[in-house]
Every structure is written in structure tokens, then in C-alpha cells.
Please model this.
Amino acid sequence: MRVLIGTPVYREGAYALEKYLANQQQIQQACPDCDLVLATNDTGYTGELDAMLRTWRLRGKVITYQVQKPGYAKSRLWNIASGREAIRRYFLSRPEAESLLFLDADMTYDPQVVTILGKELSGQDAVFSGYRFRNNRIGLSGAGCLLLRRQALEKIRFRCYEFTNGQVINEDNVAEMDLFRQRCRIKKGFFLAIDHYYSATDARSLRPQKVGLYRKVFTSAFARFCLIRASVVFHYNIPSKGQKIKWALTDYLKRVSVGSTRGAPLF
Model:
């Protein structure tokens, strides 16, 4: 087993799990040298997940974990962060595994995902492949399709921040900050086709495409480190707010462009 695919799973968010597991079957057929690990904090769910792995004839294992969080915490992100951290530790206990690929249970991927990202990992320590979010926007910062080398995983741990003012910084953002701090080489792009499900039938699709100059600069490792680190210092999720401002400005400029081509006044 050269590549371990890891996915946190919780029962309430398993509306697309059958599609995900069918996709995992395609991925394992395309890449016989990969295994799957599902992580859940629901000990009563493990038997059902084990049965699903057998039904889909998948090479894999189900592990359990406990959610670690401060007493005041309310965000479900602690569940996700604890799940990713449990998978990271399980991966490090498997010396035969060379890299860890995080995939999400509400997405399906090009069956060649391991090969595609494996090529992009050459000369890198971590590769993020972007996908569509719930608002149909596209982004490059999520861990829903993230391939990491063992050397990188030995230097970081998955964690999130939740401050008493209610502001939260996602575990994937914190991991990105820590990777940069540890001088890991990070690559981002839209390298493969990904369908992101928001119900059992409704999905947002993204196909491979080039990254524009503005996005390339805005999501560079250094820019992201500065924004995320500042968020930790000031207890405010700056990247999330900045993203919303950027989307609003983009929509406005599109409306202005359409209006000017029709001869309508700009203001």
C-alpha cells in the first residue's frame, strides 16, 4: 500500500456516502496500490461502515476517535479536525504508506485521482486540488482533495481554532499555515474533475482548469500564511471575510460590465 486515502465520516453527513464508496471502488480499481481508512467518532456506526466496505469490496479499515475541544467550543469543525488528526496518526503508524490523500465523503472524484495528484506531487510536499463550495464558488484552500507526503505529515498536526467571540478558523487553513511555517512546498490548482454533493442528488461540478493570475497571487502559500496567521492573532477569520468581499466585488464588476455593454448607466 503506497497511498492511503483518508476520510472523516459522520452519520448525519453521510447522505452521499453510497456515491462516495462507489467512486472509491473505481479509484481502487484504477490504483491497486491504495487503501481506504474511514474515521468516525460514533462507535455505534463502525459496524455499519465495516459492512459497507465489504459490500463495495474495498480495501480499507474503519477507525474511531474522540473529539478534542475546549469546553466553550460549539463548532462542528472540532469533529472534522479530530477526524483528520486521527487519520494522520493512523497513517504514520503504517510505515509502508508513502503519502496520504484526504478526500471528503460528500464528493466524488476522477477515478485517476491518485495518479493525477501523484504527478503533481513531484518536487512538492503537499498538493491541494480545488473544488466548488456550497455557494457554487470555486476555491483552492479546502482539504477535500489534499495529497501530503509523509515528511510533511510528520511536521504538522490537524487542529482548528474557535475563539470566545465565536470566530472559527478551519483545520485545513491551520494546516496550510503550519505547512508553510515548516517550510513545506505547497502546490495548488484545479487538477481533476470533482463533484461536490449537497444532498443525495444535488451536486456542484468542477472540471480541470487553469488558475488565473489574481487567484494564483491571492492563494499563494505566503499570502495565505500571512492572512491565516493574522486571523489567529486577531481572533478573526480574515480569509473567509476577504473571500466574501472578493466575491461581492466580482459580482459587481460583472454587472457593471454587462450594464456598460448595454449602454446602461454605471451608477
Notes: The domain at 3-236 is CATH 3.90.550.40 (Spore Coat Polysaccharide Biosynthesis Protein SpsA; Chain A). Residues 238-261 form the longest helix (24 residues). The chain has nine helices and 14 strands. The CA atoms of residues 125 and 152 lie 6 Å apart.
